[in-house]
From TrEMBL:
Pfam families: Fer4_20 (PF14691), Pyr_redox_2 (PF07992)
InterPro entries for this protein: DPD_II, FAD/NAD-bd_sf, FAD/NAD-binding_dom, Helical_ferredxn, SudA-like
Every Dihydroprymidine dehydrogenase domain range: 26-135
GO molecular function, one term: oxidoreductase activity
Protein name (Swiss-Prot/TrEMBL): NADH-dependent ferredoxin:NADP+ oxidoreductase, alpha subunit
Coiled-coil regions listed: none
PANTHER family, sorted: GLUTAMATE SYNTHASE [NADPH] SMALL CHAIN, GLUTAMATE SYNTHASE [NADPH] SMALL CHAIN-RELATED
Region span, Disordered: 1-21
Membrane-spanning parts: none
Length: 469
């Protein structure tokens, strides 16, 4: 395959479209919506890259993936090299190729985006990562590192913990991950539904780490089973990456009614325990015709699209600002609309209404209008007096956000926290306890997969430096 195209020829190629399952078919099952590019589509898209000297796209990637290099290898049909370059910079490329908001990161800075469509970097990342999973025998292997004799405990098996574990294992340190749940992946497994990120992808990415010698101990709650001081005394260093999974309450009447879920509970039951998807699931889930999801982020989109797949006739997003201010990925909003999700914008919940026997029957709402911008730069919603109305709903899901869970930090009094309970670190991820590092959502509050991974990578480099004195 030739990658010897002139800039003019490259500019003439149009951005590829991701093949998708038809909306009426996919809204009834949990099959992955995006089907992945064909080899011809991937090479053509790779040939759109101008191989700019400025490498703007790399600056937009929180883990600094060598984007032009892996795309060049792909355009030249040198898949083993493409996979080697990608894997060298990113421990979870098949995950990132599916869930990263490239449109606000690498693709937002891509030179081609100035006059038209950016290179579809995310699609290409997914293509190369999937190829690598399907062709293990063709991959360029790395020599096993020399063991350093040092040990590191990682708390939490989400993207921050997995990334740090991979980087540390590569340096020859002995790594053990402690995970509270019975399975790996953190939000990747219990939060993000299979129609966006199949579990098989997480299993395969985790298997790569296991082959590198990383030990994973599930069902261990740090703060209960063991504490941070105990880990610190048994290991040479500790990396805390336990996420921020505590639901933010709505603080409205009716929040404790039967039929109200926090987003993480709803998604965990369906994604991790397969409620509503398998008759022998170990946990139940309510199924109702009308489901109202409060919030406008990725979590809200995942809940509402899941409710639709579980059979809701009216699956509704209730959001207090307008669509322009929604933090969810553009692709998620588009997919949700195609699947028949209703968007009830400029509407805030004021109470949850019950039947006589305590089941949810409606969400009482108030219409909003947008005022001047607030600290986040988004226009502030203001209530319109006298505009209350009841939206019939048998299930209400609270997807307005999460914060740090104090379970772990309560047993580590020497850890400095900020006013929201997040762990305070320096730029390298070191906490107030020497030898204890932290990263991901427990430091940032709810953020993104790639930012958590960036923290894991940075902290691993600092831990390596610390261990080598
Ligand atoms: P987590 O992924 O939360 O992992 C933390 C792990 O620590 C969990 O496995 C948890 O069980 C474990 N743990 C917690 N407490 C303890 C303890 N005391 N002891 C031991 N283990 C413990 N980001 C994107 O970039 N793109 C998306 O499309 C996207 N969609 C999302 C959808 C949903 C539903 C949610 C909730 C988030 C989404 N995000 C998305 C955000 C992203 O998933 C998180 O920012 C990211 O997972 C944070 O990684 P982490 O490793 O810090 O924490
Ligand atoms: Fe290629 Fe865009 Fe990166 Fe330039 S900025 S190297 S065109 S991906």
């Amino acid at each position: 395959m030739s990658n010897d195209l002139s800039p003019k020829e490259r500019m003439a190629i149009e951005r590829v479209h991701m093949p998708e399952l038809p909306a009426d078919e996919r809204s009834k099952n949990f099959e992955e919506v995006n089907q992945g590019l064909s080899p011809d589509q991937a090479v053509a898209e790779a040939q759109r890259c101008l191989q700019c000297k400025s490498r703007n796209c790399v600056a937009g990637c929180p883990v600094g993936v060598s984007i032009p290099e892996f795309i060049d290898a792909l355009a030249s049909d040198d898949m083993p090299r493409a996979a080697q370059v990608l894997r060298g910079d990113n421990a979870l490329p098949a995950v990132c190729g599916r869930v990263c908001p490239q449109e606000t990161q690498c693709e937002a800075l891509c030179v081609r985006g100035k006059k038209g469509d950016a290179v579809a970097i995310g699609y290409l990342e997914r293509y190369v990562a999937d190829w690598a999973m399907q062709h293990p025998d063709e991959l360029i292997t790395e020599d096993a590192p020399k063991p350093t004799g040092k040990s590191v405990a990682v708390v939490g098996c989400g993207p921050a913990g997995l990334t740090a574990a991979g980087e540390l294992a590569r340096q020859g340190h002995k790594v053990t991950i402690f995970e509270a749940l019975h399975d790996t992946g953190g939000v990747l497994r219990y939060g993000i539904p299979e129609f966006r990120l199949p579990k098989e992808i997480i299993d395969r990415e985790v298997a790569v780490l296991s082959r590198m010698g990383v030990a994973i101990e599930c069902n261990v709650i740090i703060g209960k089973t063991l504490t941070i001081p105990q880990l610190r005394s048994e290991f040479d260093a500790v990396f805390i990456a336990n996420g921020a999974g505590l639901p933010t309450m709505l603080n409205i009447m009716g929040e404790n009614l039967k039929g109200v879920y926090a987003a993480n509970e709803f998604l965990t039951r369906v994604n991790l325990m397969e409620a509503g998807r398998r008759a022998d699931s170990s946990t139940p889930i309510l199924q109702r015709d009308e489901v109202a999801v409060i919030g406008g982020g990725n979590t809200a989109m995942d809940c509402v699209r899941t409710a639709r797949r579980l059979g809701a006739k009216r699956a509704m997003i209730v959001y207090r600002r307008s669509e322009t201010e929604m933090p969810a990925r553009v692709e998620e909003i588009k997919h949700a609309k195609e699947e028949g999700v209703e968007f009830i914008m400029l509407t805030a919940p004021v109470a949850i209404v019950a039947t006589e026997d305590g089941w949810v029957s409606a969400l009482r709402c108030q219409k909003m209008e947008l005022g001047p911008a607030d600290d986040s730069g988004r226009r502030r919603p203001q209530a319109i007096e006298g505009s209350e109305f009841d939206l019939p709903a048998g299930i209400v899901i609270n997807a307005v956000g999460t914060s740090a869970n104090p379970l772990l930090t309560a047993t580590a009094p020497d850890l400095t926290l900020n006013k929201w309970g997040n762990i305070v670190t320096n730029d390298e991820g070191e906490t107030s306890i020497p030898g204890v590092f932290a990263g991901g959502d427990i430091v940032r509050g709810g953020a993104t997969v790639i930012l958590a991974m960036g923290d894991g990578k940075r902290a691993a480099a600092a831990i390596d430096k610390y261990l080598k004195g």
